[in-house]
Automatic annotation (TrEMBL):
GO molecular function list: ATP binding; tryptophan-tRNA ligase activity
Cited CDD domains: TrpRS_core (cd00806)
Single GO BP term: tryptophanyl-tRNA aminoacylation
Family of the protein in this entry: Belongs to the class-I aminoacyl-tRNA synthetase family.
Keyword annotations from UniProtKB, A to Z: Aminoacyl-tRNA synthetase, ATP-binding, Cytoplasm, Ligase, Nucleotide-binding, Protein biosynthesis
Species in which this protein is naturally found: Haloferax larsenii
Catalytic class of the enzyme: ligase
Gene3D superfamilies: HUPs (3.40.50.620), Tyrosyl-Transfer RNA Synthetase (1.10.240.10)
EC numbers for this chain: 6.1.1.2
A GO CC term attached to the entry: cytoplasm
Protein name in the entry: Tryptophan--tRNA ligase
């Protein structure tokens, strides 16, 4: 795993100023090309056309299936260890965009078990975060007919059997080489659970291209899963990946985090809180004085409010380019740029929060997105388990 004097990127820790090109060399992924970007559905999402999603594995198979109207799926999940912030929710809105444009299946695993193994938090607290995170994901507005949400502990009847099958394909030396020495045996086993997440759409729907849009630190999970699929013991293709850069921390640089005491913008923040956080904490690329800024201009490449707009919160390329130009020539001040970014983010959160408030009880909302009984049986059968209906009939008869 990349850990240098300059930065660290693992599935469990991201620190420092990230060299994204060096990560490609370390991970063996390919840059996302202009031709590939052009194959995404129109209008091409700003995360793709601006290079926030900057690298890929086997994205062509997914794009071909999407453009030809064939079965294709997205897998993007959440580790519920705390309240969600804006960086957490962006991949889900991207998945919703693809579902709206291409009709793709979307599978969303919530790895509550992993967060218990990784964090010093009780199960009850993780459970409550899972419920709250689930409501935020439901507020995105996925099509329940084409979306399945899996909570590891609630759906252990399908996740665990699949993970057991895949665990036999992964050695401890592979886990150690990919993740470092695990802190406990649960984390040693967890790559098999991740493989169950990533291969589940194909085990339910049949062999087809699956794409995993994730931040680049999560790529090790994809690599281990692709190794399992490559052994061809199961009727699945290697899942593809779309790797993104990190939404920067408010204080810049690095990755926005929900831990370590750093400031972040939560999905529950009201407008006043958003403006206060941007004004107080957002790292500026401007000069120390108005006079100096008018003369020398600012640097949008390091300015966090501008980066928020560029990454996701300003859809118009013309406007985002104009803001960068005006910031560089000094006609747009840092305070003014902060106000623009805060307004865009607050508007986004207002809409998100309104949709969340319109949801019914979480149990009722969640039910329509859960795997059907037949889908659970199909998935288990695809990795070699017997038809569980026979067991259920025998149990009923015995009782």
């Amino acid at each position: 795993m990349p850990a240098t004097d300059d930065f660290t990127v693992t599935p469990y820790a991201v620190e420092g100023n990230i060299d994204y090109d060096r990560l490609l060399d370390e991970f063996g992924a390919d840059p996302l090309t202009a031709d590939q970007k052009a194959q995404f559905p129109r209008p091409v999402h700003q995360l793709v056309r601006r290079g926030v999603f900057y690298a890929e594995r086997d994205v062509d198979a997914f794009l071909d299936a999407a453009n030809e109207g064939k079965t294709h799926s997205i897998v993007t999940g959440r580790g519920p260890s705390g309240p969600m912030h804006i960086g957490h929710i962006i991949p889900f809105y991207f998945a919703k965009y693809l579902q709206d444009q291409t009709g793709c299946l979307v599978y969303i695993p919530l790895s509550d078990d992993e967060k218990y193994l990784l964090k010093d938090k009780p199960l009850a607290e993780i459970h409550e975060y899972t419920r709250e995170n689930l409501l935020d994901i439901l507020a995105v507005g996925f099509d329940p007919e084409r979306t399945r949400i899996v909570v590891d502990t609630a759906d252990a009847d399908v996740v665990y059997p699949l993970a057991v099958a895949f665990a036999k394909e992964v050695t401890q030396s592979t886990v150690n080489a990919t993740y470092g020495d695990p802190e406990n045996i649960g984390l040693s086993f967890y790559p098999a659970v991740q493989a169950a997440h990533l291969l589940l759409p194909q085990l339910v729907e049949g062999r087809h291209p699956t794409l995993v849009p994730i931040a680049v630190d999560q790529d090790p999970h994809v690599r281990v899963c692709r190794d399992i699929a490559a052994k061809q013991r199961y009727d699945v293709s290697k899942p593809g990946a779309l790797l993104s850069k990190f939404l920067p921390a408010l204080e810049g640089p690095g990755k926005m985090s929900s831990s370590g005491g750093s400031a972040n913008i939560r999905l529950s923040d009201d407008r006043e809180t958003v403006f206060e956080k941007i004004r107080t904490h957002a790292y500026s690329g401007g000069q120390r004085s108005v006079e100096s800024h008018r003369e020398h201009g600012g640097d949008p490449e390091v300015d966090v409010p501008y980066q928020f707009l560029y990454y996701f919160f300003e859809e118009s390329d013309e406007r985002v380019e104009r803001l960068a130009r005006e910031y560089r020539d000094g006609s747009l001040l840092s305070g003014e740029l902060k106000e623009i970014a805060a307004t865009r983010i607050a508007d986004f959160l207002d809409a998100h929060q309104s949709r969340r408030e319109e949801l019914g009880p979480v149990a009722d909302e969640f039910e329509q997105y859960r795997l059907r009984k037949s889908e659970r049986q199909t998935a288990r059968q695809q990795v070699g388990y017997a038809n569980t209906r026979l067991f259920e009939e025998r149990t009923t008869h015995d009782n």
